[in-house]
Design a protein that fits this description.
The complex is a heterodimer of chains A (331) and B (264). Chain A contains 12 helices and 13 strands. Chain A has 331 residues and is α/β, with parallel strands linked by helices. Chain B has 13 helices and no strands. Chain B is 73% helix and 0% strand. The chains are: A alpha/beta (331), B mainly alpha (264).
Chain lengths: 331, 264
């Protein structure tokens, strides 16, 4: 049986936020009497993640996804509740725990800006107690997987965003962590770079059985990597389960465009009891529920003279967009 | 073995930071030149014959200020500014989840800069001796070694003081403004503007209880051959390090609990 590697119970996090009214009056007031309030950004959440799982955290901006990742990796201290990651309390930041994890933030970098990435790699190797031979071996292996070579010897400031991101990944994975926290790792990358990164992460997961917690606003990252998603809405979990179940729930109907041999056939089909979205000459679009697709298509093909048909999936971004604004999904 | 591993981390950090510093060699040369306050002070002292009041000859005074310049070059600390910026920009976050305290990075950065500064400081000293040939002297090896040790201890004290202030970033965000409050006593009581011996007796007795005279005055007096109590100076430096280190550790542990990973 696969073990839980992350166990979160009744976790909450509050931040003290100070607010200021606009203008000079507000500035003076803010100077003498600062208004601060405690804002609960994570509200009593619980979940477990199994070893080797890739889990996507979905939510609108400010929903609390990144705060959850920061607590899981020990960067910030929880206000209430408990977190166990690989048997450790993350915020204690014990050396063995830190050697087991990595955090990659799309907007933040750990590479030394004015030096080639290779210098940062060797520095990381010594920080993680890797000897030079082992470090060389891992750099070679990871650079092959990431398809970077000459870039390793060019100062970071002269690299493109994609090359930099690959180098960041290499630096973050040199110590072969078995838990990866990825906060929008494909942010700002072009389509090819995004695809390569996804391919790499999948390969890394397959080869090392690493657990990956991922947040991304690019739905392709989520759909191609994560079987399970945790949706966060205003600091609370609105859905935790399989991605395909969520998609089925959110879009229970498929649209099917049918091209009939003649307009008469299209009229016959229009009056046959199916839900029609629209009809233009011999082309008719039907809305059919997911669970009756097979039987409905059988009926149509047996009883009508059909030239062609297309099944249209609703755009994934549109479907997931619904999750971001809804509080609860009971599936 | 643990010591070796630890050494390897520090050595690699130093190597990398030194390469990084060499990228900024022009800036470092300018920083070295900007540290010539002691020479201005020497000019003020000698032009106004102020040294007569404290029974120090012109030659010994010029040696003192040259040594003050050297000690300052190798003990200047700016960790509060670096840490504040990194903390506000969220750059500390990746370092916080590595198995090495981020302050070791700043420590290595400072040491690497000191190594980079060294040739520039020597050039400045060379020109100083051209204009003040009577000040040329060769300290004996024992004194030179003790001066190097005490300059390093001075650097450690300043690094710990600033690191403690830097950790206040976890509470106030603008810790550098608190550092400004320390700048005034550091400037006046450290011996940068005037040797501490020039202060009235009752003030001196208080000053020697603070860490400030051990930052520049003591190592500069030691190196220049002026009269100084070596055992008291070194002991006080070590005592201050032993007092400041646990305080830093405590404030670091409490501070990281407050960290909000801003800017990321």
């Amino acid at each position: 049986m696969v073990q839980n590697i992350i166990d979160v119970r009744n976790l909450s996090k509050s931040f003290d936020i100070s607010s200021k009214e606009p203008g000079l009056k507000g500035t003076i007031k803010h100077f003498f009497k600062r208004q601060t309030k405690s804002l609960k950004v994570i509200k009593d959440i619980s979940f477990e993640i199994k070893e080797g799982e890739i889990v996507g955290f979905l939510g609108a901006n400010g929903a609390g996804k990144t705060t959850i990742l920061k607590m899981l990796c020990g960067l910030i201290y929880p206000s209430e509740g408990s977190i166990l990651v690989s048997g450790y309390l993350p915020f204690r930041r014990k050396e063995n725990f830190l050697k087991n994890i990595t955090l990659i933030m799309g907007q933040k970098q750990q590479l030394i800006w004015d030096l080639p990435p290779i210098e940062s790699f060797y520095l990381n190797a010594s920080i993680y107690d890797l000897d030079k031979f082992e470090a060389k071996k891992r750099i070679k292996k990871l650079s092959e997987m990431l398809e970077i070579d000459e870039e390793l010897f060019i100062p970071v400031r002269k690299l493109s965003l994609g090359q930099r991101m690959k180098s960041e990944l290499l630096a973050a994975l040199m110590h072969e962590p078995n838990i990866l926290f990825l906060d929008e790792p494909t942010l700002g990358l072009d389509i090819n770079a995004q695809r390569n990164l996804r391919k790499f992460l999948q390969k890394y997961n397959n080869e090392t059985n690493a657990t990956i917690c991922l947040t991304s606003h690019y739905m392709k990252d989520i759909t191609s990597l994560c079987k399970r998603v945790i949706c966060v809405h205003e600091g609370a979990i609105s859905y935790d389960g399989k991605l395909d179940l969520l998609l089925k729930k959110l879009s229970p109907v498929k649209e099917i465009l049918i091209v009939c041999r003649s307009e008469e056939d299209a009229i016959k089909l229009e009056n046959s009891g199916f839900t029609v979205k629209n009809k233009i000459k011999n082309e008719i679009t039907l809305k059919i529920e997911n669970n009756s697709i097979t039987s409905s298509l059988k009926t149509i093909l047996n009883n009508f003279d059909i030239e062609d048909l297309f099944i249209n999936e609703p755009p994934i971004d549109e479907v997931i967009g619904k999750v971001l604004i809804k509080k609860d999904y009971d599936i | 073995m643990i010591f070796n591993l630890f050494n390897r981390k520090i050595f690699t950090l130093l190597k990398v930071q030194y390469s990084n510093m060499l990228e900024y060699r022009v800036e470092i040369a300018l920083w070295a030149i900007s540290g010539i306050i002691p020479f201005f002070m020497l000019n003020i002292w000698t032009n106004n014959n102020l040294n007569e009041s404290i029974n120090i000859s012109d030659v010994m005074l010029s040696r003192y200020f040259l040594c003050a310049f050297f000690v300052r070059q190798f003990s200047v600390v700016w960790v509060v500014f670096s840490f504040e910026e990194d903390s506000l920009m969220g750059k500390v976050s990746p370092y916080l989840i590595q198995p090495l305290n981020p302050f070791f990075r700043y420590f290595a950065q400072h040491l690497a800069e000191q190594i980079t500064r060294f040739p520039f400081a020597l050039i400045i000293a060379f020109f100083f001796f051209i204009f003040n040939p009577e000040s040329i002297w060769i300290p004996n090896l024992g004194i030179l070694l003790l001066s190097i040790v005490s300059t390093f201890l001075s650097f450690l004290i300043q690094f710990l003081i600033q690191s403690i202030v830097a950790c206040l970033c976890f509470w106030t965000e603008k810790a550098s403004s608190i550092e400004r409050m320390l700048f005034i006593p550091t400037l006046f009581l450290s011996g940068l503007l005037a040797p501490v011996v020039s202060f009235p007796e009752y003030v001196k007795s208080w000053i020697y209880l603070t860490p400030f005279p051990y930052l520049i005055d003591f190592p500069a007096n030691l190196l220049s051959g002026n009269e100084t109590n070596i055992s008291r100076g070194l002991s006080m430096q070590i005592i201050w390090i032993f007092l400041l280190f646990p305080l830093f550790k405590k404030i670091w542990i409490e501070g990281t609990k407050k960290y909000t990973a801003m800017g990321s």
